[in-house]
Every structure is written in C-alpha cells, then in structure tokens.
Amino acid sequence: MNIIKENKILLIVILFLATTLFGCMNDMEHQGNWSSPVVDEDYVYVPSDKGKIYKFSKKDGSIVNGWEFPSGENSLGSFYGEMILNDGILYGSAYGNGEGKKCQNRKCVSSLFGIDVTSGASIWMEEYISINGSVVGGVVYHNNTIYVATSENDKSNDAGGYLYAIDSKSDSNKTLDELTSKILWRIPLTGEVYGAPFLDEDQEILIIGGLNGDISLIDISIDDSYDYNSLNRLILTREGEYPVISSAIKVSEDSYCYGDIKGKLKCFQLSSFQNDISEVNGFNYWGELALDGWIWSDIETYNNSYYAITLSGWLYRIDIDPDSELISILWDKELKFDGKPVAGLTPYSFRNQVLLAVPFDKDKIIIIEDGTGSTLGEYPLKNGVQSLPIVDNNLIFIIDRENNFRSYSVSDRSQIICFDLNDMKGCD
Q1: pLDDT digit string (tens) for 359-379?
Q2: What is the pTM (predicted TM-score) of this model?
Q3: How many CB atoms lie within 10 A of CB 46?
C-alpha cells in the first residue's frame, strides 16, 4: 500500500513539474533558436529568432542577398521544430500570434511552410498554411504529404492535440479544385504533443507520444476507405503514465523504443504484426531501462549504436537487442556544466572515430568519444545553444542563443563563420 501511495505521489509531482515546465515553454519569452540549420550540397538554410529564414554559402559563409523567407516585413514568429529538406523544398513550421509576432500564450497560430530553396519563394499561392495551436515538434514528410502534431486541440478545452496531414505538392500544376484546401485530413489525439511524430516509411505508420503518456499508432497509407472517415487511421492508443516528449526510434522490423519523463526507456513490439498494419492489435512491451533524469530529447542512433542524454546531464551509450529482448548500458557519464542539454546530441564520424556533439543551453558544446565516453574537447559558447549542432563535411553549424549563426572546423575547432542575425552583419 505504501508503494502504491508513493507511486501516486511521484506521478502527481512529475505531472505537476511537466505541466509547469511546458506552460513556461509556451509563455516564456523565446530565447534563441530551437530549430537547427539545414544543409544541402552548397548552402545552409538558417532560421532566425526574428522569424525569418536565410540562405548562406557553405563554402565561404556569405549570405545570399535577396533570399529570405518570408519576404519583406513579414515574420513567422518562433521556430521550434526541426525543418526538413526534400527534393529542393524546405519544409517546416513556426508559431506566433497569427500576425508574425512571437506568441506568449496558448492561443498560438502555427505557420507551415514549403520553400523552393532556389528562389526562396513559397511553393504554394499562400506564403504559409496557418493552423490553430502550437506545433512544437518538427514536420514529417511522406508520399507528398507533410504531417505535424499540435500541443492542443485548436482553441478548445479538450485535453489532446491534433495530427494534421497537409498536401505538400506545389500549387503550380494544380487545378482550381485542387487548390481549395491544403489540409487533407486531421484526427484528434488523446494527449497534447510536444515531440515530432516518428515515421516508419516501410510500414507507412506514425508513432506519436503525448504529454499524458499515451502512445498512438496511425496509418498514413493511401487507402480510399479512409476518405470517408479519417478517424479510422488511428489504429490504437496505448495508455501511459508519464509524459512522452522524445520521438520513438525503430530497432527492428516491428519493434520500437521511446523515452519518458520518468527516465524510462521502453521498447515494444507490435502485436499480431504480419506485414499488414491492420492486423496490429496492441503493443507488447518487452524491455525497459531506467536512466537518471528526464528523457527529454530524442534517442539517437548511429552505426547500430544508441545514445541518450537526460535533462539532468547523464549521457548513455545503450545496447538494444530486440532478438534477445535485452536493453543494457554500455557506459554512462555525468556531464556537469552550467546549462542543460535541452537539444539532445549529434553523433558524427571523424577520422575513423564516432564522436558525439552535446550542446548545453548556457555555455558550450562538448565533444565525447563514442568508445569510452571520454571528453575530447569543447566549443566554448558564452551564449550557449538550444538547437542541435549540424555536422557536414568537416564543418559544424549552430545558432547560439544570441541569434548568431556560427560554423566551426571539426578538425581544429576554429571558427569559420559568425553572422549576427539580429543586425544582419558579421560578428566575432
């Protein structure tokens, strides 16, 4: 009985803390960027804290004059979720008050955009698509459709969020009938969503975790039967206890893992799964691992290895074996710095080594060696960083909390680019 009472008290405390923190995230003054730069072969696309996106040359760090989105005096508000680049189109979201200003309450309006990276213009007749509610996680692209989940059901009093399916195709070749609505369908979810949906392209499903702890499985395949009732796409929902913010990961054909605010890494298999998603009738949980602190950011995979960092600063390299249904810690390391690792970590390869770039929101980026967890060096940043570092071709790209776009050499950690996105000029 004491154990039951203790668990109930713990649940109340955690949910209170989560509610408080998430309320602060919605109501706080936005400080710096949470969205990372996006890199293609020659350019870097950089979201600014001023509600715009700019294009920079990867070769010399120069800004591409005349390329900005949205154009003129328009602004999108604040960028939180990660952007994605697909076939020359940059997709993403921001949210504000509906008039380009930053949003400080739960009446935020999200702006979904698709930008032709060559011209910098929207691929739609509108500059962006507006939906009520805050899209905190990133967008997902599949089969000419982008998917986003909101942190609330529009402006209603319902407890959950929505999953939106948006037509991603350019308007240039559409008929008048096809231009009527970009929103293909939406379905309500049982919980508010702060993380990005996980896409399993092979099975054409999305796995979504909510702040109420629920895990939902959604069919996103092209099926005419869904035209009459899109709610049928929600295959099942598994009730949970603790808020889920990080996205799920796939560890085998039918097994997935995710972390929660309790600090538990949980793995499950789709029950009765036989290459037909309609046959799924439940989640079979086969593994659980307790970590120290909130699992806030995504669990990262690289070369069949798994990495997690908690909000308390504990970094883990984890072995996940779905065949034997075992999860174990290969090594762990406590990182003690002024800030918190709110963005997660970025694995990358350099000189036949796997390295981990771990950003802290107040002071620096730490470089960790994959084999033993030893610290190899750092990128000192007096302003800190709240977005994931992007590593590409011996360069690491970040946006610090003072809205400066920076890049460094991976080999010697020397600074290559510094551009002040507030004053639109070079910096130190």
Answers
A1: 998 889 999 999 999 999 999
A2: 0.90
A3: 26
